[in-house]
């Protein structure tokens, strides 16, 4: 799902200029499905405006771990109560070259769908994404998108009229592979 011409690894000579960030990949049951929360970023955001993402953002000074950043940002953006979330671990970190962010996806569980409240300064829309059903019926399409660096031909996940591409699609892709592997183990 990596856009062409982009890198996943931080170049060694740029290591000090990389901005650390985290996203919360929260799994929860909703209407008989395994879901996660995605957001459509506000068009006023400096980085990746209007794109589909997981709740998250840049680490603040003094935050000792990616999970602290992910929980704080998810609370600020969509009102997820950190006390109702169990951290499961991390998915693979990735580097977003165009914005200079290293993203740490923090995988977590909630026993029920959170009571979401949207911070309209950062989030235009909350998207409940049925990751369990999606994993069983994964669809990948290709399109061209306009970016700050020009037009890119990218792989994307279609969902309810949305294009899920870039870092968000890469994180979903890894999670889908984990869910598929888990399902094949539990079926036998």
| The CATH class | Alpha Beta
Instruction: Name the CATH architecture.
Output: Alpha-Beta Complex
Give the helix/strand class: alpha+beta
Uncertain segments are none
Task: Calculate the mean pLDDT score and round it.
Answer: 86
Strand content: 35-45%
- SSE order, one letter for each helix or strand: EEEEHEEEEHEEEH
Number of discrete helical segments: 3
- Principal-axes geometry comes out as globular
Number of separate domains = 1
The first-to-last residue Cα distance is 29 Å
At CATH level 3, the topology is: Nucleoside Triphosphate Pyrophosphohydrolase
Q: What's the topology here?
A:
Layout: E1 19-30, E2 33-41, E3 52-53, E4 56-58, H1 66-78, E5 86-90, E6 94-96, E7 101-109, E8 123-129, H2 131-136, E9 141-147, E10 150-159, E11 162-164, H3 166-187
Parallel strand pairs: 1-7
Antiparallel strand pairs: 1-2, 1-4, 2-3, 2-8, 5-7, 6-7, 9-10, 10-11
